[in-house]
User: What shape does this take?
Amino acid sequence: SIGAIVSLAQQRQRLARIESELQSVTHEIAVGIFGENAPSQLSDSQIKDLNDEITFRLKDVADAQASGVQLTQEELDAVAPFQQYQLLNQSVTEGRAALDSASSHLHDELNDKLVFIGFASTGAIVDKVHTPLDTQTPGVIVHATVADMILSNRHLNHVPFWVTPLIILALGVLFSRIAARYSAFSSALLAAAILAAYFFFAGIWSFQVFRLDLPIAAPAMASTGAWTACTALMAALNQRERSRITRQFKARVSPHLVDYLVGNPASLSVSGIQREITVLFLDIAGFTSLSEKLDGQATVTVLNRCMNALTAPITDQHGYVNKFLGDGLMAFWSAFHDDPDQSVFACRTALLCQQAIADLNASNAMEGLPKLAVRIGIATDRVIVGDCGAPPLLNDYTVIGNGVNLASRLESANKAFGSSVLVDGNTFNAAKQAGFLTRPLGKIIVVGQSVPVAIYELLPPNTDPKLIELTTEAVNAFNSLDFNAASAAFLKLSNAFGPTKLTQLYLNALSDHESLATGVLRLREK
Assistant: This one.
């Protein structure tokens, strides 16, 4: 108890008073014995003489009283200082012994120990602090608790200085990758879950189990800031990507397809994917002759007018105008997602382009100029679609593959067959249920290829059915290697509808031993 310390201090004060009184009485007696010149500090021999004198005087008094002698008041007053000296001296001796004993006991209790001295009171000026224990906890309790934590190894452990930047960096990178990979809503949920898990780990689990002080505020602010900045950046990039897609395709494809691309930018694959595509090549027949009669500016004006009339049906039929090739163009369907009706759209586009060029020829703008026509080749095949060129600065979203080459060769093959629109067998099979009028033109091997393909001519709706019937009869006979029947059928076709490039081509082929052997026409020119 702190009372032991207080009692020890009181004993020291009491002993000091007794010693002071003893010194005063001793000086009084010394003056009586040694005279007025008695020193205030007696030597050991003088103290011995003084003690002997006191002992002798008190013995005489005691003997006299013991023998029944009645001492006078004057005699009693004379020996009173000696009696007082004896009592004070005894008290000093006993007090010193008691003080030594108490000091020794206190030393044994407190030696090599931490001692906290404090007090608790209801007074307003006392040392009180807010703690989890109470809002008015005495400060000495806090000090003692800290010492106990240190001595029992239950104190808080701080991480090294480099751990905080490392945690900030790790969480910042993680939250940036989350924001970049997922949508804003999904990344927000995932980021909140990770942040809550970190709060639990750093603020509760590590603190309770390992008494480890991990940073919370700085990593939380850094990770939140990284997610916010990255999300804002991704939003800006997405907006930029949407603007790029809109800019790139708005003038080339139908508006609803542009809206689809804006809503689904991932469908615009730039890495190249394999997909079944219907490709259309178109060339304006007679434009070279027309350009010879016009100056450069007028030629461009007429060409722009033609292309404007021809691209409108393509975009209306959900096609993608890929590139302009002088007085021709290339377009394809299923540019960004599979379209099961692509062949139907392509065939309908071909017929609409024929009508568009006819309407343009009849307009006042073309008065006095040579009439124009279109040659169109259409093929359907599995090809590669994606960005080609020198991306990302110079690139073209286009298609590459055998079907593209075939469509280009079919457009040129119209010259040999005297036709306007040629389609391959894949396109014909996919579109035949749509009610288009076609006639088979046989099997051919185009320039640059070695595999024969069946081709068909797409005909206008007002075509004479007998033309289709006679052509089908003649071509089937040729394909069946019944060349006598084929020759007669083509002569019959020629007599009915007049000589054409088609009949002349097959009649010439009947004298070609290679064609006779295989029933396949090989085109020699593009």
Q: What stands out?
A: The first helix runs from residue 2 to 34.
